[in-house]
Design goal:
Helix content: 25-40%
Largest sheet: 5 strands, parallel
CATH superfamily of the largest domain: GTP cyclohydrolase I, C-terminal domain/NADPH-dependent 7-cyano-7-deazaguanine reductase, N-terminal domain
CATH topology of the largest domain: GTP Cyclohydrolase I, domain 2
CATH architecture of the largest domain: 2-Layer Sandwich
Shape: globular
Distance between the termini: 56 Å
Strand content: 25-35%
Number of domains: 3
Number of helices: 10
Structural class: alpha/beta
């Protein structure tokens, strides 16, 4: 990003603040360090002071940051109005003002960050853990890690979302209303430590006689796609079932869906407690949840 682009976004932010009719006589506070530059420009445009240090200040102070991705940084300033030069629409906590609202995830490099690349930041991590990034064995490692990230975190890319093929139940002359089961392996990374967790899954559903049937290979593709982002296993089972349920439709939804996942979490096995990090999670809908006999049939297959 150039300074021209950055300043244009700040100009838009200033116009929004002025148009609001609010005054911030207490000044403008820039959250370190990305909020410094926009805070100085906004304070000058509003004719109010720049607050240099965070401490107690009242609601007359406007808090500024360069970007809001999740809102966790601005959350601590909840009593004050907040402004961000860029903000993601997906953020659960949004600033009061946003110069540019971003509707898809993009990697932004701000002008004051120079020409630092992903590879440069990986070099910093290698140095932090005590490695020598220039030794022969690590030659090319930053680039390999970048390419690995693009692969194992492809679940963030909507363009790589699998197309889920479905077929009308009874189209081939057979109306199927019995349990369909697919099982396989999964691999993901936990969002708390970015360490792998992996294991086996069992997916089952009972088609609606008037509804649709899933292409069997698509189930595994959906598992892989949902797992290819920072996850917790409890959410992963929901993501997979919800995505497949959407594909089957709401007019004639399946009679029930069940997913059970058993995984080993290296964040517990390798670090911290250093105990076997085994975890089982499940998500049941329809008659898998309400009918004990159906649930028992599914669990009998899982426990073979």
């Amino acid at each position: 990003m150039t300074y021209e682009e950055y300043n244009a976004a700040i100009d838009e932010l200033i116009e929004q603040i002025k148009s609001s009719g609010k005054t911030y006589n207490g000044g403008v506070y820039g959250i370190p360090r990305g909020g410094y530059y926009p805070a100085i420009r906004i304070a000058k445009a509003l004719g109010v002071p720049v607050i240099a240090h965070y401490g107690y200040f009242d609601k007359s102070v406007l808090v500024v940051d360069d970007i809001v991705e999740t809102g966790s940084t601005i959350f601590k300033y909840g009593d004050n109005d907040t402004a961000a030069v860029f903000a993601y629409d997906s953020s659960p906590i949004k600033p009061t003002y946003a110069g540019v609202m971003m509707y898809e995830k993009k990697w932004l490099t701000f002008p004051d960050e120079g020409s630092a690349t992903i590879e440069d930041n990986i070099v910093r991590i290698l140095e932090y853990i005590g490695e020598n990034p220039k030794r022969e064995g690590l030659a090319g490692t930053p680039d390999r890690i970048k390419r690995m990230f693009n692969e194992i975190y492809r679940g963030y890319d909507p363009k790589r979302k699998p197309k889920i093929t479905t077929f009308q139940n009874g189209k081939d002359g057979i109306v199927y209303d019995n349990m369909v089961i697919d099982e396989g392996d999964f691999y993901s990374c936990c969002e708390h430590h970015m360490m792998p967790f992996f294991g086996h899954y069992w997916f089952a559903y009972i088609p609606n006689p008037h509804g649709k049937i899933l292409g069997i290979s698509k189930i595994g593709r959906v598992v892989d796609y949902c797992a290819a982002r920072l996850q917790i296993q409890e959410r992963l089972v929901h993501d997979i079932v919800d995505m497949l349920a959407d594909a089957l439709g709401t007019q004639y939804p399946p009679l029930g869906i069940a997913l059970l996942m058993k995984g080993e979490h290296l964040c517990k096995t390798m670090r911290g407690a250093k105990k076997k990090g085994l975890m089982t999670s499940s998500y049941l809908t329809g008659i898998f949840k309400t009918e004990a006999a159906v649930r028992a049939e599914f669990m009998q297959i899982v426990n073979k």
